[in-house]
Amino acid sequence: MAKNKKGARETIQLKSTESAECYWTVKNKRNTTERLELRKFDKSKRKHVIFKEKK
After folding, report:
1. Per-residue pLDDT averaged across 8-24, rounded?
2. What is the pLDDT of residues 35-44, one digit of tens each?
3. Phi, psi (5° rounding) for residue 28?
4. Which of 33, 34, 41, 46 has the highest CB neighbour number within 10 Å of its CB?
5. Among residues 16, 19, 55, which one has the least CA distance to residue 37?
6. Is residue 3 predicted with pLDDT exceeding 80?
7. Which CATH superfamily is domain 9-54 in?
């Protein structure tokens, strides 16, 4: 029997702490219950900054 395609995965938006830049990604809600904070490249600032999960 096939499993549910969507399951525990959810599409989330990561928002930059220093500008209006955004990234879209997918996370597993069962394994990662807290909000994500990733260090990614901000194109407008041209440096790496922290991106936080937006609700």
Report:
1. 95
2. 999 999 999 9
3. -90, 115
4. 41
5. 16
6. no
7. Ribosomal protein L33 (2.20.28.120)
Domain boundaries, the chain: 9-54
pLDDT at 7 over 90: no
Structure tokens at 29: 């809600």
- DSSP readout, the chain? -PPPSSTTEEEEEEEESSSS-EEEEEEETTT--SPPEEEEEETTTTEEEEEEEE-
- CA nearest 19: which of 45, 39, 37? 45
**CA dist., res. 41 & res. 50, Å (int):** 9
Structure confidence at residue 20 (pLDDT): 94
Residue in the structure block whose two tokens are 């938006």: 13
Q: What pLDDT score was predicted for residue 19?
A: 95
